[in-house]
# Entry
Amino acid sequence: MHRADRFPSRLHDRHVRRLPRQVSSRPSPRAAEPVGAAKKRHKPRLTVRSATGRVADATVKSRASRRPAQARDGVALVRLAQGTSKLLKEPQVERPRGGRPESSAVETVEIRPSARVITRGTPVHHIPHQPAVPFVPPAWMLEESQISPARAGEQNEILQLLAGLPMPPTRAEFHAAVDHPEHDSANRLVARLSGRIVGHVEIVPRALLVGAATVPGAVVDRLAVLPECRGVGHGQRLVRAAEERMRQTGAVVAFSRTRIAPSFHELGWSVLGRDCATPGRPTEIMARLLEGPRRNGEAVTMRQWRHVELPAILRIYGQNACRFVGPLNRDENYGRWLVSRGAVDSIMVALVGQDRYELHESSARIVGYCIQSGNRVLEIMADPEFAGLEREILARVCAEAIENDRQEIVYESSAADPLHAAVAGGDGRVAQGDRMVVAKVFRPHVLLEAVAPAVAERVAAAGIRETVELGLDAPSFRGSVIVAEGKGEARKTRQASVHPGRIGRSYLRLSDDELGRLLLGQSDPIEAVAAGRMEPSTQMAQKLAGQLFPRQPLWCPLWDDLPA
# Structure
């Protein structure tokens, strides 16, 4: 059968559509017009009426039309095609041959569409209202998870879980943790639910600095829970298990950098502060540094570091870290592991003297350094004898950023660092980070004994000669610290001692988290009393709290937590 016979109707319709349209013998009104007349019909026209009410025989010069303007009473008509938006200028009016026009000022201008206006409205879809149904997790998700150390062979599953973190560790970073000098497989805890890993937390033992005192501590890192298992307490069980593990290892205080500080606060952790990161343009920073005061002293030379200079870098770090609360005590073994991770791109050193390659600082002395990772400046430290050297190091960083065509650098340091003002300028662009530093004191008695020498020095600096006693009444610790004159050869000096179980007449009643802030130098007694977090027995107790435990700058270096 022929193909046309199988589909007669389709072929018929197709041929019918191809038939020419019948033309009426009656001429159309537009048939006599030239071809371009239809296009000229929609071009803008302008009629100008003078301020005196009379219209001269004028011709409007425009791209749309050069016909004589037709006057209408009281209104100058401007017709534009729909959808166009043009800036109307005052039309140029030619002088008539017979004389001079009286006035060319435009009194009114009215804009109207030159063709039919078709408004196409957006269709409205009516969605039926459905009440919100609360999410009910399945029964297996509500079961209590089992916390235990991670086993061998679970690295891939843990890495997949940690991939949901804002700053997930790489595989190289995960395996580099095994090479840490104090690595212990029991310090990596996981939460298992029905045989599946749904949570993870890592405990990193560290020696922490609280001012000039060094105390055994730990850092809680890589806390993560699967998104579908959040909100049912798995994260809190992990933190409690980590706290028990840190108590067993003898940690006095623990620090953590987290985005869920309220959840830690519910578990008794003290919220100390935020990371501080200030962005700035290298050219503007350089201009501000050049306008500032110049350093008086020996000239320094700056270059990239050599591995034999690591002890000098650690020495400068120790000279500056004792002014803060929260840094780690970096020894040489830890420093070499920190460098081997490859988390930073550049380490620059500043030195004085003749620059030679040597194992010891005999001909040249390292007096400053800078740690960089991309456009992030993580640390700038200088020898306290070279005051103002940090500004010169920052200027060198900006000069290299300009050469490498970097439009912005980010300076990350303690909020008390004066270089933030040089980076931000006068507009106050110092930005607080999205992560907060939290801490928990497990052994207040040990921490108080560690900071007791610094407390005695503060009493001596204040010129207080009589014996001073301040009691602390908290759920985890009840005792007092007494500062008195030394005995024997140390009679002219002040000594501080801790007496558990005795609070005396002047004491402070406070919670455990406020006690942690007070001992770590992050509490303001006046503010705490006004907020109700601290209750002094006498006015002297509140005054002594400010003198014995003043505010200290907080700094937890990001180099130690930066993923490789």
Q: What stands out?
A: The longest strand covers residues 196-210. The chain is about 25% helix and 25% strand. The chain has four domains: 40-115, 139-251, 282-407, 443-548.
